[in-house]
Amino acid sequence: MTSNIWTNNIELNLRLVDQNLGPSVFVAVTGNEKDRNYWQDHFESVRGELFRRDESTLILSVAETTKKGNFLGTLNAWIETRKNQDVSARNLPDITLLNMLFGQGKRFSPFTQALGNRKSAFLLPFNSQKSGLFFSTADLSCLYTNLWIDQLRQQGFRGVVAKWGDEAVIPGRIMDSSKQGFAKSDGVRFIWKTSLTEELARDKEWILVESSTKLVKKQFARSNYQNLYEKLSSLPEHLYEVGVNLGSLAISYDFLDIAINVFEEDIADKSKWIDWDPYVWIALHTESLDKWYEVVEEEKMLGLSGLQDLVQRYPDLYEKISEVRRRLEEKNDRSFSIHSFDFGKPYWADFGLHHSLRSQLESLLAKSDDGVVSRKLFQIPEETDENGNRIIRSSIPDNAKITNSIIMDSVITDSNTEIDNGLVVGGLHGSILMPYGGSALFCSVDHLEFSGPHGVAFGSVGKSVALEQGGRHTTLFTYPKFKHLVGSEKVIDLKGENYENKILGNDLSFAEAETLMSEVDPQGIEKLRQQIRTHGWKHLEELSNET
Asked: What is the H or E stretch that residue 323 is in?
């Protein structure tokens, strides 16, 4: 069963850390100097639990202060990384892990603002136990990349694995490094070979792979189902395979060094930006300039404007991409080669959106195979008590009505507590009413009440907090004061007016909260959270009164 493979691969990830086989160099790419310092300190404190138990992984945090997109951003980050004397041309690690840890995070409001506009710092119900620290979404994203890196290393690949900070992806097949070699690869694409659906056509890029060699031959942009179906169904099935692009990528050191030389002026140009997906990859797999413009015209006929906009602001992109490819082939005396790495059906844990976060948290309570995998992901035990609960390092009143729930590293003191199918993590509470389920993460509230399902409270503090169905609540630590901010799953679009104007009865708009929290010291937020978890929310009130 696939679920068994997922759980085995999760355990293999963790064993690789104990065996000191994670990446020897890790690069965090951030958006400003304040974030750069924050993530540098953070990853230095957890590197022994994410990468190598002996803490030998070199941590580098670099700031991308102007928008580059993740293609030019990768090149810029590699320039900064190579400035470090421990990453010299003669001492390159076999594989470097690079994680992009920025983004406005508007769709994650109000939690983004509560985190000082660092959405990847969102804490999860994963207590490392060795240090007593809870892992963030960025941590989990890194931890469960160790298996990918080990497989690439065993197959001879040398380069950078570039990924994004809000997701953990577990391969759904048994890893076998003997089947395929990547020693002569200019890059590796991670794919899931599956059937085309309306949803996947709309939301994902598709990659065409030559069956005999596993070489990537083409990438298709997101499109409508009928258009993609016609393209893919016309291909000889015995010659080609297709798969969903899983987003992250591996790219060789040779590619990066040549691309930096070709795109040197663009990297320095504050107005230039471009992402890898889909158009850099489409350009890399397009044989000629004429074919490139055929792709532009085809997208125009389909009513898609992305490539047209790109060509207008970046008219020489194809020529530069072609030059990178030409120089690579000349240097290596072989054809340009991008291999595919089939993950099988992946277990995909995405923490960057409200619905996917809530679904992931609720899956911890499920009695299904997915529930088993989710609990394994967070290292939560399977055993329950007679009430179906997992009470982990927590204190609860004897007379509280708690059933089918997970209470982790929390204290609940009031026996007038009712929780069913609830998740309470890192909390310090009087009473909790959660009869319809919900998640309370790292809160300190005297009376916390969920009046419907699917609510998530994160870092909430105060005397009384109430959430309605699908509600969100958090507290902004604008030291020495604090402010409450609410959100809701009902608000799908968090751009434009919903972001700029006050909604849901908030005293601040999400935009105003973003500006307010941009001035708050991130280390100060972490310190206050730790103090509140120890002393309760009134400690914050006392600090406010003193000031």
From this structure: helix 317-332
